[in-house]
Q: What sequence folds into this?
């Protein structure tokens, strides 16, 4: 069994056509992490993607940090309630990946964690994870931001997943 390494992640990114990435060391960790990202056709800001091969835990952790922010002390409680209901509904629907809210600082993130013990992490698995992350963030981040801003409520993520995008963009 080959360990998932930063070098492997970099090779997979190149194979996938992503040329902009940076390896970084993590203090106290056997393996570092890779920072990359993408520009969404629907968002004005680029998305940062961190890929962390957690060798000690036999995991690969993909996450999009700080996608949105809703600090408890600056976000009305009804907005936080709507955000948490929306995240719960999305996570219930998603088969791979999850949205998370950190109440200590208000961070909203998306992540996918893949176990790697007793197996090889293939390029096909990597590509599948990358596609899930990009599609989920591109689809739901604009809606999450509108929920935090009070333009939508959790109902925007209920019902037919195809309709969510249209409702979130104000097209229905």
A:
């Amino acid at each position: 069994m080959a360990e998932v390494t930063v070098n492997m992640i970099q090779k997979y990114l190149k194979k996938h056509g992503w040329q902009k990435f940076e390896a970084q060391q993590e203090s106290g960790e056997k393996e570092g992490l890779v920072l990359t990202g993408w520009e969404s056709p629907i968002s004005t800001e680029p998305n940062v993607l961190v890929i962390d091969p957690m060798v000690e835990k036999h995991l690969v952790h993909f996450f999009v940090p700080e996608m949105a922010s809703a600090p408890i002390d600056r976000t009305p409680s009804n907005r936080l309630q709507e955000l948490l209901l929306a995240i719960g509904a999305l996570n219930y629907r998603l088969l791979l990946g999850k949205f998370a809210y950190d109440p200590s600082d208000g961070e909203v993130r998306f992540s996918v964690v893949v176990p790697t013990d007793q197996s090889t992490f293939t390029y096909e698995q990597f590509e599948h994870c990358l596609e899930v992350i990009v599609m989920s963030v591109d689809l739901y981040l604009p809606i999450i931001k509108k929920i935090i801003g009070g333009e939508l409520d959790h109902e925007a993520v209920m019902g037919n997943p195809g309709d969510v995008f249209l409702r979130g963009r104000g097209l229905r």
Observations:
- The two ends are 50 Å apart (CA to CA).
- Confidence is low (pLDDT under 50) at residues 164-172.
